[in-house]
């Protein structure tokens, strides 16, 4: 992936700050934790609020970030800036105004508008404070346990997916899906289908971002799109279930299969058109 000269001021780096804190507990099972760790995106507030808070951890000593960590921050600032520029353009083309999200880099635990964030959750978007939270150790797990080769562009894909949830929040999509989830009027299987549609739309938005940003900045290098596809497939529900429990239960899917995640990312990339991303009509009509 080619770097640009753009940098965003909406990135906060909490790594090395010495902040300990409470962690989420409350009897979450191993398989649920595995799902939290390796699913990308979504609103974690229901999971966070359902767990009891453990005792506060002792604050760790502050430390200086090393050269590699500083480079990671600069990369995240660049990708955030390119998301801001692309989505500002897309919103303007549709008569809307884009409000940028914040990005927080952290390690171990930190506080979010949705509760206590921890590394085991993987990257996520919190609609309450319109912020993407990322502990970069997630990408080691993605590579070591789920077979995705991590590149700069696979990291950019994950960020773009989370920014896709921010787009959904601004457009009111997340508010509508939350009503479905909390209404009590739908079965678990129906709620799961809505969740899948939500996540696949975020994948579509990530592909759209890749296309439009490359059109503007020529950021893509050979192999970049394949690395994003590999990451998307690695966190498909079927792949995660096979690796964590040895079998696949399609009715319990909440993020979509590996094939679906690839399909919708590529649809966003191939069309570059936000009007083509209505996953809800296609998935919920079946």
UniProtKB/TrEMBL annotation:
Keywords, comma-separated and alphabetical: Hydrolase, Membrane, Metalloprotease, Protease, Transmembrane, Transmembrane helix
Transmembrane segments: 21-41
Compartment(s): Membrane
GO cellular component, as recorded: membrane
Coiled coil ranges: none
A single MF term (Gene Ontology): metallopeptidase activity
BP GO terms, sorted: proteolysis
Chief place of localization: membrane
Membrane topology: Single-pass membrane protein
Entries under PANTHER family matching the protein: INNER MEMBRANE PROTEIN, PUTATIVE MEMBRANE PROTEIN YPFJ
Name of the protein in question: Metalloprotease
């Amino acid at each position: 992936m080619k770097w640009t000269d753009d940098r965003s001021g909406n990135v906060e780096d909490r790594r090395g700050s010495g902040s300990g804190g409470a962690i989420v507990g409350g009897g979450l099972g191993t398989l649920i934790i595995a799902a939290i760790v390796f699913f990308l995106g979504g609103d974690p507030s229901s999971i966070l609020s359902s767990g009891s808070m453990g005792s506060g951890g002792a604050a760790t000593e502050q430390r200086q970030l090393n050269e590699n960590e500083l480079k990671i921050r600069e990369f995240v600032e660049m990708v955030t800036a390119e998301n801001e520029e692309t989505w500002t353009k897309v919103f303007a083309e549709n008569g809307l105004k884009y409000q940028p999200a914040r990005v927080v880099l952290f390690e171990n635990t930190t506080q979010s508008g949705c509760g206590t964030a921890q590394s085991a959750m993987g990257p996520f978007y919190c609609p309450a404070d319109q912020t993407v939270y990322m502990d970069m150790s997630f990408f080691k797990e993605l590579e070591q346990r789920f077979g995705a080769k991590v590149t700069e562009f696979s990291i950019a894909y994950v960020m773009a997916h989370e920014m896709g949830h921010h787009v959904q929040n601004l457009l009111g999509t997340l508010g509508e899906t939350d009503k479905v989830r909390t209404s009590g009027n739908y079965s678990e299987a129906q709620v799961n289908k809505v969740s899948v549609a939500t996540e696949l739309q975020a994948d579509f938005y990530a592909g759209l971002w890749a296309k439009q940003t490359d059109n503007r900045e020529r950021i893509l290098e050979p192999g970049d799109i394949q690395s994003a596809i590999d990451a998307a497939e690695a966190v498909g529900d079927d792949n995660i279930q096979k690796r964590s429990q040895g079998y696949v239960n399609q009715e319990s899917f909440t993020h979509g299969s590996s094939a679906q995640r690839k399909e919708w990312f590529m649809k966003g990339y191939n069309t570059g058109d936000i009007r083509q991303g209505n996953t809800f009509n296609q998935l919920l009509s079946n």
